[in-house]
Amino acid sequence: MSRPAGADRPPLWRDRTFGTYWVAQSLSAAGDSFAYLAVPLLVLQATGSVAQMGLLTAVAGAASVAAGIFGGVLVDRYDRRTLMIVADLTRLLLYGLVPLAWLAGPQVWLLFVVLPICEAAGMVFQVAAVTAVRNLVDRDRLTEANGRLQATYAAAAVLGPLLAGVVSARFGPSAAIAVNAASFALSAAGLWMIRLRPAPAAGAATVARERPLAEFLAGARFLWRQPVLRALTILLSVFIFLTYGFVDVLIYHVTHDLGGSEGTVGTVLGLAALGTVAGALLVAPLRRRRGFGATWIGAHAVCGFAVAGVGIATSVPAVTALTAVYLCCLSVGGICSMSLRQEITPDHLLGRVTSAFWSTHYALGPAGAVVLTWAAARFGVAAVTLAAGAGCLLVAVGGLFSPVRRAGSEPAAAQVGLRAAPAGGTVGG
């Protein structure tokens, strides 16, 4: 049960269970930032093709979307902590194969095997990680907890790309992937040390298991019958299509158009990650003061301007600053929508709703990555980012004409358009 907001409680940072989870996932995020840079660099180094980078991103993204279909079912059926540990160990083993194979020379084919499986495991992990926050803190602290987690992830990501650039330049991108593999061991160890709160007991109707597809569709129905969540899913599907390949295009722009090195790319991504830190720290006060709708719409509008500016920027500092703005607003919008789902979704449905939300709005991402990177190679980065930025602005405008605009500053279940599902797992009307 959630405690009243005014209850006498110690600060969140003094909660030992949350703190252990916080540290473990921050270390894992730091390792992830190595692969975030190293995988595209491995492909670019071996093939020299931004289109190949986009194809790998698309294949991995498709695997992630497919995993989302059953990931939520697994998370709602089985112990969330155990699933996260298994996902970590799977990625530890598979990413560990890459630097070993690269000792014999570039093996790009291996990335097309390893990365999709790791992204599928990562999707299950992410669904479990989002739902686990509900089992770590009280409901009125969800936005604060998500903000702290995202801020620390981002802080770790500032140093990660900087070090990844240095490691990649000195020892090769495969060495950076080895660091990422090791980070999953740290994450698994941290998860092993904690215990999650038990979920509230559900009614008999919700305990009975159905076929996996039917259970996934229960989460999809919840999304469709919640006006704000439905609008967010549609708008984010377009946004993801436009931005899924953004990092690949950014790396290509810095190295190909601006003549930067691998170290330069690491510096750009590392410093730009400060924007994610800023967004994670700003999101809670922004949402309290401006409301959910204004915060989410404003964040995505600014994202559009930043994306458009990156491609026409002619200096590395300008690209870094604009990318930081983009990541800041991406963080604000993402944490807002994540907290909203956690607040209004019953615990027994949370995994399925999260996976349905992600797998639906990420479904267009792989195709978007292919289109974006192909167009960058064919027409140039500037034209592509201008078009993508304009599309992001249209997403924000769409939010103005949807239930998202009317969502209030504290989207409790009682608000209009945010009515929680009854115990049976569906929403009437």
**How many β-strand runs?**
0
Residue windows where pLDDT falls under 50 for at least 5 positions = 1-7, 201-207, 409-429
Tell me the Rg in angstroms: 21 Å
Our count of helices gives 17
Shape: globular
Write up this protein:
This is MFS transporter. Pfam families: MFS_1. It is a multi-pass membrane protein. It comes from Micromonospora zamorensis. The chain crosses the membrane at residues 21-43, 55-75, 82-102, 108-130, 151-169, 175-194, 231-252, 264-284, 291-312, 318-337, 349-375, 381-401. By secondary structure, this protein is mainly α. The chain has helices at 16-47, 50-77, 80-102, 108-134, 142-171, 173-192, 204-207, 212-225, 227-243, 246-257, 262-272, 274-290, 292-312, 316-344, 347-361, 365-379, 381-400. Helix 1 (16-47) runs parallel beside helix 5 (142-171) and helix 12 runs antiparallel to helix 13 (292-312). The two termini are 27 Å apart.
Please write out the topology.
Blueprint: H1 16-47, H2 50-77, H3 80-102, H4 108-134, H5 142-171, H6 173-192, H7 204-207, H8 212-225, H9 227-243, H10 246-257, H11 262-272, H12 274-290, H13 292-312, H14 316-344, H15 347-361, H16 365-379, H17 381-400
Helix pairs in contact: 1-5, 1-6, 2-4, 2-8, 2-15, 2-16, 3-4, 3-6, 4-15, 5-6, 5-11, 5-12, 5-14, 8-15, 9-15, 9-16, 9-17, 11-14, 12-13, 12-14, 13-14, 13-17, 16-17
Summarize the structure.
The protein is mainly α. Helices cover 78% and strands 0% of the residues.
Which short descriptors sum up this protein?
429 residues, mainly alpha, 78% helix, disordered N terminus, MFS transporter, membrane
